Amino acid sequence: MTPALANALAALPHGPEFRFIDRLLELDPGRSAAAAYTLRGDEPFLRGHFPGDPLMPGVLLIEAAAQLAGVVAQSDPARPPLPGLKLTAVRNVKITGTARPGETLTVRAEVVGRLVNLVQARVTADLGTRRILVGEVTLSGISLACPP
Fold first, then answer.
1. Which among 19, 23, 37, 48 is least surrounded, fewest beta carbons within 10 Å?
2. Does residue 34 carry a pLDDT above 90?
């Protein structure tokens, strides 16, 4: 991973226990990115989802996509980062599969709109050639231009 990709990933505010992106594969700052996450099998959530048949919860697939959308949004060279950027809406999401231990997800996010403190992104997640998630996420942060 290049230093630029590593720096963009390091900007994620999530702790290591709640990161669903292992590495950035590509980044067009402020526009789009691709990332990978390998489900190791020792993640605590797998113990209960489901015992004897572990799989990554769909909401965590959405979280991985939202994290990547945040990386894209915060890397925009034309805009300052938005403090407190968080997932605030999920639209038209379809989950058609899931990941199991040992599998590697490829997550993609493309910023399709911005308005002051809102960021809209199209997101997907694939396992090889099989798409398992498609949809849109909205992130919002604290705009420095508009005090709270």
1. 48
2. yes
Please report, for residues 36, 42, 63, 121, 144, the alpha-carbon distance to residue 68 in angstroms, rounded to integers and kept in the order given. 10, 22, 9, 10, 22
Domain CATH number, residue 16: 3.10.129.10
What total number of domains does the chain contain? 1
Residue (of 140, 19, 138, 24) closest to 89 by Cα position: 138
pTM of the model: 0.93
**Which residues are CB-contacts of 6 (< 8 A; sequence separation ≥ 6)?**
24
Annotated catalytic residues are: 49
Give a yes or no: residue 147 inside a domain.
Answer: no
Determine the structural domain holding residue 68 and report its residue range.
3-140
Q: Answer whether residue 64 is part of any domain.
A: yes
